[in-house]
Structure formats: structure tokens, C-alpha cells
Amino acid sequence: MAQVTLRKVVKAYEGGVQAVKGIDLDIADEEFVVLVGPSGCGKSTTLRMIAGLEEISGGEISIGGKVVNDIPPRDRDIAMVFQNYALYPHMTVAENMAFGLMLRKFPKEEIRRRVDHAARILDITPLLERKPKALSGGQRQRVAMGRAIVRDPKVFLFDEPLSNLDAKLRVQMRTEIKKVHQTVRTTTVYVTHDQVEAMTLADRVVVMNNGVIEQVGPPQELYHNP
Ligand code: ADP
Ligand code: ADP
Q1: In the list 4, 100, 161, 184, which could disulfide-bond 27, CB 3.0-4.6 Å?
Q2: ipTM surpassing 0.90, yes or no?
Q3: Could you tell me the pTM of the whole model?
Q4: How far is the CA of 64 from the centre of ligand 1 (A)?
């Protein structure tokens, strides 16, 4: 069964910009799909519609077989990772990771178990009591992923998560993200404008241009014959 389904999905912003012009896409369970394309092509809008952060103007989006058009973000079975990390500066790493589960009233022991488990996957156990300001960019990025992993959602959504990092760290974190996916196997939709990043990470690349999907396929098929 497809884990995420888009049917004739349209987004028209106020003022008449048609950011997304009726796209269809099926994303399989455990698949890592990367949306790639030039700035302004509608990648981020598409991701935000899947997240529920942007209302859809037409069509239908399903997650885990359930139509989510009218379901608010926190009730969709998703977790999102942003480029600016959005960590709470006054909380420790452990508290940042625990926060989403505390909001959802998870028992304390379960929260601790999940935070410890995610910290081991990300290799950040020694950082759990630190505040975000005492972390490097790469470490902050790991904590942001940790917050997503502890939720154990059906789908991870990444919006240009590496674009604030320097080139060397970007390459390193790419490997890290791939490793995390191979461990947790969570269905992933990942947005980037970077073709190399798309090729390295994706099971399937979705090339968008001007609000439509231009090409879909595994990286080796797409970029060998441009
Ligand atoms: P990408 O992520 O590929 O760079 P976006 O999805 O951010 O593209 O934007 C797609 C189009 O929608 C662009 O033309 C952009 O200017 C427009 N757009 C994005 N957000 C808004 C908004 N809040 N209001 C109006 N237009 C927007
Ligand atoms: P409390 O002292 O009431 O547990 P804290 O602010 O210390 O509150 O922690 C908030 C949440 O973060 C708790 O639910 C706790 O389970 C989790 N947490 C705190 N420290 C750790 C840690 N070192 N490892 C795993 N989880 C932690």
C-alpha cells in the first residue's frame, strides 16, 4: 500500500500564483523520495501540504490510507525536520527531543526509552543534558532528527534540512540521514534544490518544474541521460 498519495493536488496562493498545478504521486511504505527542482518550482509547497501546514486548493492527499485534507498537522502521522532546526533554546537536548511526546501525554518511562533509543541511533547520548547553544550545526541537525525519530511517525518530511550547513558537513549529514533511514525504515519525503543530494539519498527522485512533476524515477535512470 502507498504510504503517501497525492491525487490531482493543486495549490493556488492568494494573488493567483499557481504554485502546484495538479500533481499525482504514490510513495510506498519505507521509500525515500526526494523532491528536487529549481527555486520556486513548488517543492516546499508540496511538502507543506503533506504536513498540513498549507491548505490544499484542490485534489486529495492521503497518509497511511487516510485522507488528511481536513486534518491538522499534529494529528497527521508525520514528523517534520526543518533547515533552521527550530530547537527550544532554554531546553536541554533530551527535553527538546521529549517535547512532542510530552505534548501528546506519553508516559514518562516511554518518553525516556524513546529518547535514549533515538540518541543511540544518532550517536548523541553524551549531549542529552546540553543546551542547543552548546552544540555544533551538525549536532543540532541530529537533535532535530531525534525529535522526529522519537515520534515514530508513518512519514518523515524534510525541508532542505542541510542548507544551513557548510559543504563538508552537508556531505557528512547526508550519510547520516541515509544511515538513519536504513535503521528506522520510515517513509521519507525530502525536499532539496541540490541534485547531488537528491541522487545520493533517494530511492526515487521526483523532478518538479513550474508546479508540475516533470520526471520520476530512481536516480541512476534520471541523471545518466539528461
Ligand atoms: P520551492 O520550494 O520549489 O522553492 P515554493 O513551493 O516555495 O517553491 O514556491 C512555489 C511558488 O509559490 C513560487 O512562485 C513562490 O513564489 C510561491 N509562493 C510560495 N509561498 C507563497 C505564499 N505564502 N504566498 C504566495 N506565493 C507563494
Ligand atoms: P523531569 O525531571 O520532570 O523528568 P526533565 O525536564 O528532566 O523533567 O525531563 C523532561 C523529559 O525529558 C522527561 O520526560 C524525561 O523522561 C526526558 N529526559 C530528561 N533527561 C533525559 C535523559 N538523560 N535521557 C532520556 N530522557 C530524558
Answers
A1: 4
A2: no
A3: 0.87
A4: 27
